Amino acid sequence: MTFQAAGGPHLPGVSPAATGTPAEGDRPGLIAQAHQRSESYGLRPYESPDFCPVLQSELKTQIERSQSLFTYALPVMETLYDQIVNTQSMVILTDAAGLILHSLGDDDFLAKANKVALQPGALWSEESRGTNAIGTALAENKATLVHGAEHFLEANRFLTCSCMPILDAYGKTVGALDVTGDQRGFHKHTMALVRMSAQMIENQLFANAFQDMVCVRFHSRAEFIGTLVEGIASFTPGGRFLSANRSAQFQLGMSVGALHAHTFSSLFGLSLSQLFDAERKAPGGVVHLPLPSGVKVSARIEWKAPAGSAPAAAIDRDCGGDEAHRRPEAASLPRRAAVQPAQPGLDDLDTGDAQIKGVITKLRKVIGKDIPVMVLGETGTGKELLARAIHADSPRHAGPFIAVNCASIPETLIESELFGYEEGAFTGARKKGGIGKMLLANGGTLFLDEIGDMPLHLQARMLRALQERAVTPLGSSRVIHVDVSVICATNRNLREQVANGLFREDLYYRLNGLVVRLPALRERSDLDVVANKLLREGQANGGPRIKDSVMEMFRSYHWPGNIRQLGNLLRTARLMAEGEAEITEDHLPDDFLEDRLARQATHPAHGATVAADAAPAGERAAQAAPRAQPTRLADVEVLAIVAAVKAHHGNISAAAKALGISRNTVYRKMDEANALPQQDG
Fold it and tell me: Sorted alphabetically, which SMART domains does this protein's record hold (predicted)?
């Protein structure tokens, strides 16, 4: 496998925009914006880089979380390194946050790179390192070259770096590929090699994600099919669009988001069954397809059909498939639910807390009585889990449970998502229309999460649909009757929103038949039970227990992310403690420990049980440092920060990290320290 860079800096047949590559004339503006962001993060050009890579155990965990990326990137990195060997350079792979997962390079250059912590386990986000190719490429989500003096930190200005973000099969940034070298050896073709390598990784991630789906590989020039510049689009066997790689998006002239409004037939002008028929007759299996632009492309089709089934008979059971659109009126009839494993009911949520028990008691009195339920509570308290439990214990448990997050759907699409739409209802609409979430919930439960974020103009339509138990798809005059039970949830104060004209009063009173509030985790008396239950999730047997001192830390913590935060923390801790009997302080994530210590500093009543040796070195030094006798609490804070900076030999980043505060705060407090009266030692 050899890369040919002589063709210039662009991939053959692919627009620079399709690979996220800025034009050379745009670079000065991009670098200037990156420098402005760097300053806003509190960085200073003369600042020493932070030489605090994550622990090897944490790096291992991050690699495991990025296992697919890591697996497919390694052989590509080795091939790329073969192209640049002996050029005072290195190849780097990072995760989506800019944490370096792996690197390959010339030994003499690796020694130089280590002096600025350019090594596995180091974080190279813009917040940590200022303007640099890795951090800026991830911030801008586009290929980025940062050369010499364009780096924000002076310590990094001996480098030249070319970086390309890596997208997964669904268009989400999962990492970045970078080539970094001595700025004196800059070569203009390096970026082309990096882009081609990144696209090769992306194509392999794409192929792996959709092995059982229909993949169409195409290009306007047949000889490019099978190369890294081919377009790849994936569909369900019934024709519903799933995803497309960068080249396919460029050739189709649409982003992944816009393509989700299409089926195979609306994009290529024929059904999948017709495509399979054409493929059987085509010489070499290469068919010719028209794109929406009118351009003809050559294509190959890949699909591992289930044993005993014919491609032409394949039916997509998903809500977006063609079959679902042939009889939209059928959605008004009772739906037969697929066989699914039993879902947890309300009894499973009763873990001993009196407040939760009270909520469950109230809910049992209204389940099955056509009373709408509104669940209030902070983010992460388990509102959707409660809604699913209500559905599981209701007479509708055999019907569908459809959840809609009103805050996550773009305002321009939420109406069509909820009520459905007809063919041609709006630009980019599916050829045969789409079924809305309310129709999909027919015979079951519709869960409207973050209802307080529903656009005001849509609230009137929702009120009418709930009152009339009927919906009219967008662009249609047909009225389709529905039978749904509605559960809403929000972390907002809807009464205040009503008073401020942001939420309709009539809809508010239509939805709040029974209002229950889930307590925050810090307010619950059953934290021990909840923690142990979360720890055992997904574990057949055995596993570590939570050490008593760690459980005491949990009890004194404020849990801003509630049960969701506790669950994520325990999943990480369980991995870190693999093979050990207990989860100890050493297995807990650094951000949890730092957040707890920072809160302890401002709220002394919280977290008083933490052992002194659990504090970061800078904080211990600050505690041990001889202090003057200040008269104000603010002065104590200033002196503690000064002590931390001294303990870290003037490294502002390390001191800020140890104290759990921003660099800007450290700089501001240092200025205040200069204004304090000097006292004899």
Answer: AAA
